[in-house]
Amino acid sequence: MGKLNPKQVDNVTEPGTYEDGEGLRLVVKASGKKSWVLRFQLAGKRREMGLGGFPDVTLKEARSKAIDQRKLLQQKIDPLTERDATRLALQKAEQAQKAKAITFKSVTLDYIAAHRAGWKNAKHAQQWENTLTTYAFPILENLNTEDVTTEHVLQVLTPIWQSKSETASRVRNRIEMVLDAAKARGLREGENPARWRGHLDKLLPPRSKVKVVVHHPALPWAEMPAFMKEIVKHDDLSYKAMQLTILTACRTNEILGATWAEFDLDKKVWKIPPHRMKAAKEHRVPLNDAALSLLKSLAQVRSDSYVFPGAREGKPLSNMSMLMALRRMKREDLTMHGFRSTFRDWAAESTNYPREVCEQALAHVRQDKAEAAYFRGDLFDKRRALMTDWAEYAYGSVP
Predict the structure, then answer these.
(1) C-alpha distance across the termini of the chain, in Å
(2) In total, how many domains does the chain have?
(3) Taking the C-alpha atoms of 100, 101, 104 and 109 in order, what is their torsion angle to the nearest 10 degrees?
(4) Positive/negative CA dihedral, 212, 217, 223, 225
(5) Secondary structure (DSSP) of 264-302
(6) CA-based, 20 to 30 A from 139: which of 133, 185, 240, 308?
(7) Is the C-alpha dihedral spanning 306, 309, 312, 315 positive or negative?
(8) Over 90: is that where the pLDDT of 173 sits?
(9) Contact call for residues 32 and 49 (beta carbons, < 8 A)
(10) Domain coverage including residue 185
(11) Are the C-beta atoms of 383 and 286 separated by less than 8 Å?
(12) pTM to 2 decimal places
C-alpha cells in the first residue's frame, strides 16, 4: 500500500518531494507544477524516470506505470532504454503512415517547384511536367514513392525505349531524381529502382544500340554563297535574324533572345550571358564585318531592348519566325539549326583551323572532362579570324 492518497496529492502545494514507496515519488516545484518520478537502481547506478505530470496522470495511474517499469527491472531491462525504443518505433510508424499519403505525383510536383528557380527557363520545367505526366503518371501517379519498384519503372520505359529512346532516357532520369528526392525526405529507403548503371542497364539495351539518329537538315556548305544571295534580297526582320544566325553560327534561341545590352559594337564583340547558353557559361562571339554591318543597320531603327523585337511589345520574334521564312523561300528541306552543321562542315573541309577553335565557335561543351579541366581560354582571337573567313566565304564580299 502506498504512502500517499489522492486527497494529499490534490491538495499539497509546498515545494518538495513526497514519497509513495518503492521509488515512486511526487515532485512539487516552486511554480506549483506536480510530476511523478520513479527512482530505481540498475547495474549499481541510480536513475530517475519521469512518469508524467499531475493531474494528467493520477496517483492510481502513476502506481500502475511504476509497476510496469519494475517488471522490466526484474528482467534486467532498463526502463529508460525501453521507453526510448518504443518512442522511436512510434515515430517510424507515424512517418511510414505519412509517407503512405505522399504519392509519386505529389513528390514530382514538389521537386519541380523546388528546382524551378534554378532551371534556365520555364520551358524546362514544363518539359519535366509534360514528360512525366504523359509517360510516368499513368503507372506511378498514385503510388507511394516507397512502393515504386523496378517492375513499375519498366512498365513506364519498355513501351517507349526503342521507339522514343531519347524521351525514354529523359523520363528514366527524371524518375530517378524524383525517387532520390523522396529518399532524401525520408519517404523511401533502399536502392533507386530507376538507376541505370548496375541496374536497368542489365534489363534494357543501351540507348546507343536502339537510338535512331536524326540529323537536322543542313545546307551543303558549297551552296552557302548562293543561298546568302537569296536571303539578302529580303528586308523582313526574320531574314535579318537568319543572316545573323548564319554569320555567328549561334543557336536560334541565342539570336532571338539577344538584347542590345549584350553587344559592344565598338569592340566588335557579343557577350551572351550564362543564363541564355546551353552550357550555362558566358559565350563571347566575335563579330565579323558582315555581322557588324547588319547590327549597325538594325541599331538605326531600334525600337526595343531586343535586337529582333516581335509583334508583341517587350517580346522577341517568335521561335518559328525564321523557320517560316525558310518555308516562304520554298526551303522546307532546311532547318535553322542545320546551318551550324553547314558552318562546321565548311570549317572542317575547307579550312585549316584546329578542331578546338571550330568547336569553341559553336559553344560546344568539351566531352573530355579531363581536357576541359585544363582548358581555361576561349580562343577568342583565333575564332575572330575563323568567323571573318566564314563571312567572306558566305557572302563572297561584305554586303
Answers:
(1) 111
(2) 3
(3) -150
(4) negative
(5) ETTTTEEEE-GGGSTTSS-EEEE--HHHHHHHHHHHTT-
(6) 185
(7) negative
(8) yes
(9) no
(10) 104-210
(11) yes
(12) 0.52
Q: Are 288 and 387 in contact (CB under 8 A)?
A: yes
pLDDT given at position 370: 43
- Going by their DSSP bridges, the two strands 24-28 and 16-21 should be labelled as antiparallel
Same domain, 226 and 317: yes
Which has more confidence, 193 or 76?
193
- pLDDT at 247 exceeding the cut of 70: yes
Alpha-helical (H) ranges within 132-200 are: 137-140, 150-157, 165-184
Percentage of the chain with pLDDT > 70?
91
Is 227 found in the same domain as 156? no
Residue 70 and residue 178: Cα distance in Å, rounded? 48
CA distance 290 to 295: 9
Count the Cβ atoms, other than its own, within 10 Å of residue 253. 15
| Distance of alpha carbon 285 from alpha carbon 272, whole angstroms | 8
168: domain CATH number? Answer: 1.10.150.130
Cis peptide before 138 (omega within 30 of 0): no
Is residue 215 domain-resident? Answer: no
Beta strands per DSSP E along the chain: 16-21, 24-28, 34-42, 45-54, 263-264, 269-272, 283-286
Describe the strand order of the beta sheet including 24-28 as a list of residue ranges.
16-21, 24-28, 34-42, 45-54
The helix (run of H) or strand (run of E) holding residue 78 is none
Q: Which residues pair with 39 in a beta bridge?
A: 48
Reference 291, options 263, 272, 313; nearest CA is 263
Assigned C-alpha cell, 368: 573530355
Domain shared by 377 and 229, yes or no: yes
Task: Please compute the mean of the pLDDT values over residues 86-107 and round it to a whole number.
Answer: 75
pLDDT of res. 214: 52
| pLDDT tens sequence across 4-33 | 888 888 888 889 888 888 888 888 998 889
Give the integer Cα–Cα distance in Å for 361 and 387. Answer: 8
CA atoms of 194 and 172, how far apart (whole Å): 6
**Do 341 and 323 fall within a single domain?**
yes
166 in the same domain as 279: no
